[in-house]
Design a protein that fits this description.
The protein is an alpha/beta fold and 343 residues long. The protein is built from nine helices and 21 strands. The strands form five sheets. Strands 1, 4, 5, 6, 7, 10 and 11 form a seven-stranded mixed β-sheet that branches.
Length: 343
Amino acid sequence: MTFKKFFHSVLSVLFCLSLPAQSAVILQYHHVSETLPAVTSVSADTFTEHLTYLQEHDFKVLPLNELLTRLQQGESLPDKTVAITFDDGYKNNYEQAAPILERFNYPYTIFVNPKLIDEGKGYVMGWPQLRELAKKGALIANHSAQHDYLHRKLAEETTEQWQARIKQDILSSQQRIKEEIGHDYKYLAYPYGEFNNQLQDLVTELGFIGIGQHSGAIHTDSDFSRLPRFPASGFYSTLDTLITKMNARAFPIKKLIYTDSVTTEDLPQISIQFNMGDFHKSQLACYVSSVGQAKLTWTSKDTVQVQTPKALGKGRSRFNCTAPSIKHAGSYYWFSQPWVIVK
């Protein structure tokens, strides 16, 4: 046994790798490539290392549709359940990722932009390649028509006009996938992981599940208009840290209160009401991207207010909150609140 494998085996013991019966993790990838930007890429060797870890440590890799259906229906899941997803449908998913996944016999989902495919963009797979992967078990799902920021209104566009435009975008994209692949899974991966309250409401009204790019585990009580995924590429691809995320648990949240994920407020805050019992209040820690530790104020025995200690800059930010489980040594609860600050 190599030192690296021994090290990972030790970590497995330390992290007590069982997930709760109704909790799971979704992993998010973009590129499997050594020549494209590292921020959204993993090498074939690193990707193989991720899948090897899942296999050697008895993770159950489920198709996304099975995982989400079982959670929505309140059914139990196998311990250590994960799903694997890719955004954008890049050609290297066909050339590099798919053969590796086939060797492990792991199911996966690819979120695609049908308009870009129809326009013949050279960097994404065409419908024939997607049909080939679908026949081998891949799920093909909706990532909007051409990867626009769906929550943004056009100049002088009314709310009603925006709703009609985005509804058309989502439904026409869904129809193209159905026509070309035969799949009709009502899952929408938000482009750039950005969404606001109005977009969440529209997605729910259309009968879709909304899926973001903020971190965290999912469970039966998750908000299915904003499900989290753990990015596993670039900076986040290091297995030594990814192990913690693969074994994350979903916080038991009763109520989450905030104004909106897209906001002009540069000092945003959230209020979280928990079902307490499996973590100590004193061990809850929240961090703000590019800022540092968040200010926590417990307003009652089960409710905490989380606020950034200083103003956030324009663009995307996150609050990441974690706490170690009392009952499962080394396992962490994980919640992420994404922000888009607009000024």
